[in-house]
Every structure is written in C-alpha cells, then in structure tokens.
Structure of DUF1453 domain-containing protein:
Amino acid sequence: MDIARVLVIALVVAFVLVRRFGGRPVKDQDRLWVLPAILAAVGVAEGGLVTPAHPVLSAVLLAAGIAAAAGTGLLMGRAMTLWREPDGTLWAKGNRAVLALFGLSLATRAGLALLGAAAGVPVGNGALLVTLATWILAQGLSLAARAHRIPAAV
C-alpha cells in the first residue's frame, strides 16, 4: 500500500469523524448511500479483496471485516445524540459512546489485519475501502432509522 492511498483513506476517515463529532444537520437521507457506493466501487476496482495465494482465508477475513464494520457502524449510528431544533431541523452529534465504538472499530480492523499478516494474507486497499464503505453506510442507515422516530417540531 503506497502513501497516497493511505492518505486518501485517512482523509475519508477524518472527513467522517469531523461530520460525526461536530454537530450537524441530518439531511439528504435519501443520498446516504452515495459516499459508501463510491468507496465500495473504488475498492472493488482496486482489487485485493481476495488474495489468490490464500483465497479462503482472505475471503473469511474480508467477511469478518465487513461484519465488524456493519456491527460497529450500526451501533455508532444508534449511539449518536439526535435532537430537533425549534425550526424542525434534525441534528446529530457524536458523543463518548460513539468515540468508544470508533476505537473498537479501529481495534477490530487492526486485529483482523494483524491476524491476516500473521497468516501471510496482506490487507489490500480494496478490502479497506469496502469495509470503510460498509461502516459509513451502516452508520447512515442506523441514524436514518432513528431520525424517522424523532417527532417533528410543532
């Protein structure tokens, strides 16, 4: 993995974190799939999802990474603070629970990468982008499901 790709992934993660922890209006819920779709498409195009030398193990690690990303993403979306302003605008903001879940997400990803490295399965850029896309989409879906339950301002 070259430095440019690492920087792009770091920038996407930083972008997501800034949006999660700085209070922001929840809008365009019908477009919440756009960034994850782009990341997943780039990840699939990058390749490296399954390593030819270890196809079964790399597929299992990829599936575990996607499942962990989906789980922590859903929990993060569930843990975010939601409120409605008097003008009816719905807002979301991260909190300590979201920060802890973010740490868990990073630790899980690192653990899977170390497990793969110990078995001779390198982490491909494509796999990182697909799991990142899953993580972002799961957060968005969880947040959108909760947003529909927040009553409108009267």
Observations:
- Residues 3-147 form one domain.
